[in-house]
Amino acid sequence: MPRSRNTFSSWRRRAVQRAVHVGWEWVQRTGAVTAEHPGRFRFGAMGTGTRLAFPLGTVFGEPWIHLGSHCIIGEQVTLTAGLMPDLDLGAEPILRIGDGVVLGRGSHVIADTSVTIGSDCYFGPYVYVTSTNHSYDDPHEPIGRQWPRMDPVSIGPGCWIGTGAVILPGARIGRNVVVAAGAVVRGEVPDRSVVAGAPAKVVRRWDPVEGWQPPIRTPAPVPIPDGVTPEQLLALAEWEAETEGAGETA
């Protein structure tokens, strides 16, 4: 015989669940770091409109981290300058992030020496950028105890870095480059190219005369016509959803 449902218990659970969600949203809003509300962090520079989502990842060496304007730093993103906290790294910034940069959730940017990310770069989640690599010259000494090698990293403006990509020390990525998900990048990458693989190789390149080579297989997206309002786009999306639903029930 089915058990009778405890209506009061169910109502109480829903109320507690709602309270937890509302409380967590408040914590996320309050814990976010901005130029106006930096909390305990003292970045060397932080532009207007930039926001570090809460909860943060590991952040240290912030006096040597310069963040541009209107950047979006996702949850659990690690930003570090120097090998460890509380070091004096000199007068110049170590990690420079340009305007309008988006760093996806769980990404890491480890700047033990200079790392520069140009404006309008978009990173998917869990991207790893580092200017330091372990050395293993001595085969008898544990690798973790050997002094690491450092090499500056630069990522040009307008790049798209796919989910899970790894940017290794010494990488010099040009302007408007696509780095495929999971790629492992080292060395120089030319402007307006697409790289993929581990190690990453150029798989497509822009030619001023012939365009993308090899040609892009998918058709170009149709731009939104001038004068179309957000309300019209929302109404169109709702109409398409209703049309699809009617087609499924027909």
Give an account of the 3D structure:
The chain is of the alpha/beta class and 250 residues long. It has one domain (18-244): Hexapeptide repeat proteins (UDP N-Acetylglucosamine Acyltransferase, domain 1). 18% of the residues lie in helices and 27% in strands. It has helices at 7-31, 230-249, and strands at residues 33-34, 45-46, 51-52, 59-60, 65-67, 72-73, 78-81, 95-97, 102-103, 108-111, 115-117, 122-123, 128-130, 132-133, 149-150, 153-155, 160-161, 166-167, 172-173, 178-179, 184-185, 188-189, 193-196, 201-207, 211-213. It has a seven-stranded parallel β-sheet, with no helix packed on it. The protein has a six-stranded parallel β-sheet with strand order 4-7-10-13-18-21, with no helix packed on it. A hairpin with a 3-residue loop joins β24 (201-207) and β25. The longest helix has 25 residues, at 7-31. The radius of gyration is 24 Å and the shape is globular. It comes from Streptomyces ossamyceticus. Its EC number is 2.3.1.-. This is Acyltransferase. Keywords: Acyltransferase, Repeat, Transferase. It is an enzyme of class 2 (transferase).
